[in-house]
Amino acid sequence: MIPILKVPMSDEATAAVGKVLASGMVGQGPVVDEFEAALAERVGNPRVATVNSATSGLHLALHMVAGTEPEGGPGGQPGEVLTTPLTMVATNWAILANRVRLRWVDVDPGTLNVDLDDLARKISPATRAIVIVHFTGYPVDLARLSGILDEAERRFGFRPMVIEDCAHAWGARYRGEPLGNHGNVSVFSFQAVKHLTCGDGGLMVLPDDELHRRAKLLRWFGIDREAKGRGLVRDDVAEWGFKFHMNDINAAIGLANLDHADEVVRRHQDNAAFFDRELAGVPGLELTERAEDRTSSFWVYPVKVDDMAGFMARMKEAGITAGPVQERNDRHSCVRQYAALLPGMDEVSERLVCLPVGWWVTEQDRQHIVDTVKAGW
Ligand SMILES: Cc1ncc(COP(=O)(O)O)c(C=O)c1O
Questions:
Q1: Cα 358–Cα 361–Cα 365 angle in degrees, nearest 5
Q2: Which of 7, 60, 88, 242 is the best mutation target for the ligand 1 pocket, counting ligand atoms within 8 Å of the beta carbon and taking the most?
Q3: Ligand 1 atom at minimal distance to the Cα of residue 57
Q4: Catalytic: 194?
Q5: Sign of dihedral through CA atoms 210, 213, 218, 221?
Q6: Are 343 and 106 in contact (CB under 8 A)?
Q7: Is 261-375 assigned to CATH 3.30.450.20?
Q8: CA distance 115 to 342
Q9: Does ligand 1 lie within 6 Å of residue 164's CB atom?
């Protein structure tokens, strides 16, 4: 079977981990510092903070910008976070974990990202934050989103913070810039099957020095590890925090993979360009949007098909793993109270299938995928 996802582990990772294990220091230490310096350079933004997963990063981001006490947020008003249902549940359970209400925004069937018209309609004085997902690595139109926030600021006198879930989007660019440079909190995942893996890990990129300072403190109990004595517990904790930091073992894996990550992303993109050429115009199958100002990282290759069950069965028979990969989050019992009419999501969930497009897909594999897709029509 051609898998839909695979772990991109470099040969150097084993020795790098061995070195850390033998060093006597396996917690957050010099290797995390080195990894963060390298990540800051890649992203082009010095305000980075590694964490032990994107889930932790999203939890911490929401805690910092939208977290409320159970009785309500600022002014006693219960706040809400606007979010997309088309993502891994990690995105949305991080909102629930912060005890803030969630409000679904519909999905744009053209991009599979949040529907920005619906988002603009749903911003209100209760909006504490907006979570967007660059689904499959295709960037949300961040300039248009910024314009919507300008308008919200004019109407309501405040600008809700945007949290970008970049879990699929290492290597993606918006208007030529890597994600993490557009004035929002951005959270990347370095989980096992992402373009860049630490085994497990994540990265927060912060838009200002104050949020950066808080993220670095709150990822480790609120204790300042950089202060003299490296985080002695006798230091006063002004704001309590979590245990979300990355350790040197995971950082060593990430560093060993970092130099290969550009090539990994390039191979995803090269296979995607082949599919774009070969699958355009195939009846019964629709490609998603490609805007000129956006470069997708193509974590997987999404298509919309008329006969989803038949398509997936044909793929399976031909030894190709294909499926939605991530399913709508809004139908689970634990979010029943937030149910909303989402026609875009309905359309997508009946048609979305993702094809393998990653670095492991050879020229022969991708031709086999195209031939199998075309043979069905
Ligand atoms: C869109 C999205 N957000 C968040 C996560 C959570 O990432 P992590 O496993 O690093 O916590 C994932 C994981 O696949 C994801 O796909």
A1: 145
A2: 88
A3: 11
A4: yes
A5: negative
A6: yes
A7: no
A8: 10
A9: no
Distance 187 CA to ligand 1 centre (A): 9
Q: Mean pLDDT for the chain? A: 95
Every domain of the chain with CATH number 3.40.640.10 lies at 13-256
User: Cβ(356) to ligand 1 under 6 A?
Assistant: no
Q: How confident is the model at residue 70, as a pLDDT? A: 47
CATH code linked to domain 13-256: 3.40.640.10
Lookup: tokens for 253 = 């894996």
pLDDT score of 137: 98
| Ranges of CATH 3.90.1150.10 domains, the chain | 261-375
Catalytic entry in 122, 194, 216, 304: 194
- Inter-helix orientation angle 54-65/209-218, to 10°: 120
Q: With contact defined as beta carbons under 8 Å apart, do 164 and 187 qualify?
A: yes
Show the tokens assigned to 308.
Answer: 């989803």
**Gap from CA of 163 to ligand 1 centroid (Å):** 14
Closest ligand 1 atom, residue 133 Cα: 1
Q: Residue 211 has which token pair?
A: 């949020």
361 and 273 in contact (C-beta within 8 Å)? no
| pLDDT at 227 (0 to 100) | 78
b/e map 143-170, b = 16+ CB within 10 Å: eebeebbeebeeeeeeebbbbbbbbbbb
pLDDT of residue 67: 72
User: Ligand 1: does its nearest atom lie under 6 Å from the Cβ of 52?
Assistant: no
Q: Compute, in angstroms, the gap from residue 183 CA to the centroid of ligand 1.
A: 21
Element (H, E) at 254: helix 248-279
**Ligand 1 midpoint to CA 318 (Å):** 29
The pLDDT of residue 232: 57
Whether residue 88 has its Cβ less than 6 Å from ligand 1: yes
Closest CA to 54 of 226, 219, 221, 172: 219
CB atoms under 10 Å from CB of 257, counted, come to 24
Ranges in the chain, pLDDT < 50: 70-72
